[in-house]
Design a protein that fits this description.
Blueprint: H1 2-11, E1 17-18, H2 27-31, E2 35-36, H3 40-46, E3 49-52, H4 57-65, E4 79-82, H5 88-100, E5 104-107, E6 110-111, H6 114-119, E7 122-127, H7 130-140, E8 144-151, H8 155-183, H9 188-196, H10 203-213, H11 223-235, H12 241-257, H13 265-269
Parallel strand pairs: 1-2, 3-4, 4-5, 7-8
Antiparallel strand pairs: 6-7
């Protein structure tokens, strides 16, 4: 996700400096004109605004608090925008640490996958100070079709966990529906055709329905990541029938098919 988002910023004419824990992943961006920083602290020294896009709380903690992490920089009045899907708790913790260093923190996770990142069509939900959000709203406009501040620090993360819980429920519902229909003599292709032309049809169901039909489980959004997000939502207090069912299913499925796409839950259910 970070790679196509960086390309959008380069395309928009922003001077860009990048850091990746795997330096080889920056080569394409360098070829497009980006500079590189040797570590997160130096990155913060060189940039007015720093965007993070990593996988989980542990990666965030390492980037902030590790050797040569962001918090090791002596720079002040910088804006750090964490676009990762992580817990609201770690956002609140990092925001306090940033404030102690004289910097600003926003949580700004995104809804959308690689395709939406490539097209600048992400939906961005932001938590943090209104005044700081307004300073970067114009930059976010190059990354997404919509950005919305939904509350104070951690609110963006909470909104993302809510959306991803619905995503998991939809994936499981589609998998169960297709299995039920097939077990009763209905062709999968016919069922998806009906769904796509009905009031409940949407882009996600169409794409993932086709993936089930074609047995294409190459990860666009890895199942292990939705399992992680459901764990985070559970830690925040979600305790409803559908969320609990999705939680149990995806935790079990992640043990054997975590690197497959989210819709591989169909194989677990069948």
């Amino acid at each position: 996700m970070g790679n196509p988002m960086s390309k959008q910023l380069i395309k928009a004419g922003f001077p860009l400096t990048v850091y990746n824990r795997n330096p080889s992943k920056t080569e394409e961006l360098v070829a497009l004109g980006a500079k590189t920083a040797l570590n997160p602290a130096l990155l913060l020294d060189q940039a007015a605004v720093v965007f993070l896009m990593v996988s989980d709380d542990e990666a965030v903690a390492a980037l902030f608090q590790g050797e040569n992490g962001l918090l090791k920089s002596t720079s002040t009045n910088k804006i750090i925008v964490n676009m990762s899907t992580i817990s609201p708790a770690i956002s609140r913790e990092m925001a306090l640490l940033c404030k102690e260093k004289g910097n600003h923190y926003l949580d700004a996770p995104v809804s959308g996958s690689v395709k939406q990142a490539e097209d600048g069509q992400l939906v961005i939900m932001v938590g943090g100070e209104q005044a700081i959000y307004q300073k970067i709203e114009g930059i976010l406009a190059n990354l997404g079709k919509m950005s919305l501040r939904v509350g104070e620090t951690g609110a963006g993360n909470t909104a993302k966990l809510a959306i991803n819980t619905l995503l998991a429920i939809q994936a499981q519902g589609l998998a169960e529906t297709m299995a039920f229909a097939e077990n009763n003599g209905i062709q999968k292709t016919d069922l998806i055709n009906l769904i796509n032309n009905s009031a409940i049809g949407n882009v996600f169901l169409k794409i993932k329905g086709d993936a089930i039909i074609n047995q294409n489980f190459k990860a666009v959004f890895a199942l292990k990541h939705i399992a992680k997000d459901l764990r985070l939502a559970r830690a925040e207090g979600i305790n409803s029938p559908l969320a609990n069912t999705a939680y149990q299913s995806f935790q079990a499925a992640a043990l054997t098919m975590g690197d497959d796409d989210i819709i591989a839950i169909a194989n677990h259910i069948s």
